[in-house]
Amino acid sequence: MKTILVTGGTGLVGSAIRQVVETTEKKDDEQWVFIGSKDCDLENVEETRKLFESVKPTHVIHLAAMVGGLFHNLAHNLKFFRKNMAINDNVLALCHEFDVVKCVSCLSTCIFPDKTTYPIDETMVHLGPPHDSNFGYSYAKRMIDVLNKGYAQEHGRKYTSVIPCNVFGPHDNYNLQAGHVLPALIHKAFVAKRDNTSLEVFGSGKPLRQFIYSMDLARLFVRVVREYEDVEPLILSVGESDEVSIRDAVSAVVKAIEFTGNVEYDTSKADGQFKKTASNEKLLKLFPDFKFTPFEQAIQESVQWFVENYETARK
Ligand code: NDP
């Protein structure tokens, strides 16, 4: 019997994994344990040790992190760095101490070098400084790869990482300030429709992004923990041709929420990186049969979830 501990199990990605392993991806020889910060503060090594003592995981999916959108990152780089460094160091040290067979941690495409060639691939994580706006989060994430290589080299451990592009879906952080672009947009459009006001979008709308639906990412995580045997990171993203502009994303949200008012772009606000196009070639070679949910359908499902869960959603 495998016991798979999911840190960050109450968040956007964690709750999507929970949904798929309890339904379509269920297996009888796997027991899944999902924990959030109320169950254990992973910044605290003793609490983390107690968690490992009680769960006794054979496998770990490590998602827990301080996560936020561009504007939240800009204001708190030091905090993002220190919190995430502490959490990651504790989790990986305890995986080793408790003889965990496999740990899959989570990087992000936004931690890649700012000045780079496109498309970005898995070999480029350390090839130059990240964008200034989120250097704290980025360097802390990159250190996961350093830890994984260290545990492999010194202890023969199979601890690895995946690199998702922007994720969205049910249970996201829909906060207008701290949320990522899509959930913040969904919330703003909801309010604009309700209050009959214009929808104000930060920035020019021109930057390009790859977005993955949390349910698709969840199915990929499950396959990685079951089948991926390498220490080197693996990008989990939609393809290069599925990249959309923020303007395209706004259109999809506006359509899904049936907002008919004005959309205004506030170009005095920062755009962030213009693009960070990642290649999913390695992923498609590994899992050639994998099918992504179409973007508009995934937006529709996320909007529906937000509207139905407005009172209790994180916002
Ligand atoms: P969420 O913000 O939705 O969830 C974060 C999770 O981490 C929550 O379960 C939270 O617990 C937990 N957590 C935070 N701090 C602590 C702590 N000190 N101790 C224990 N648990 C803690 O994040 P996502 O689901 O969006 O992100 C999951 C992973 O995916 C992260 O590593 C993130 O960096 C990565 N990622 C996310 C992307 C995105 O677009 N969202 C893109 C690429 C990568 P609780 O809610 O109970 O407080």
TrEMBL record:
<keyword id="KW-0413">Isomerase</keyword>
<keyword id="KW-0560">Oxidoreductase</keyword>
<dbReference type="Pfam" id="PF01370">
    <property type="entry name" value="Epimerase"/>
</dbReference>
<dbReference type="GO" id="GO:0050577">
    <property type="term" value="F:GDP-L-fucose synthase activity"/>
</dbReference>
<dbReference type="InterPro" id="IPR028614">
    <property type="entry name" value="GDP_fucose/colitose_synth"/>
</dbReference>
<keyword id="KW-0521">NADP</keyword>
<comment type="function">
    <text>Catalyzes the two-step NADP-dependent conversion of GDP-4-dehydro-6-deoxy-D-mannose to GDP-fucose, involving an epimerase and a reductase reaction.</text>
</comment>
<dbReference type="InterPro" id="IPR001509">
    <property type="entry name" value="Epimerase_deHydtase"/>
</dbReference>
<feature type="domain" description="NAD-dependent epimerase/dehydratase">
    <location>
        <begin position="4"/>
        <end position="238"/>
    </location>
</feature>
<dbReference type="GO" id="GO:0016853">
    <property type="term" value="F:isomerase activity"/>
</dbReference>
<comment type="similarity">
    <text>Belongs to the NAD(P)-dependent epimerase/dehydratase family. Fucose synthase subfamily.</text>
</comment>
<dbReference type="GO" id="GO:0042351">
    <property type="term" value="P:'de novo' GDP-L-fucose biosynthetic process"/>
</dbReference>
<dbReference type="InterPro" id="IPR036291">
    <property type="entry name" value="NAD(P)-bd_dom_sf"/>
</dbReference>
<comment type="pathway">
    <text>Nucleotide-sugar biosynthesis; GDP-L-fucose biosynthesis via de novo pathway; GDP-L-fucose from GDP-alpha-D-mannose: step 2/2.</text>
</comment>
<protein>
    <recommendedName>
        <fullName>GDP-L-fucose synthase</fullName>
        <ecNumber>1.1.1.271</ecNumber>
    </recommendedName>
</protein>
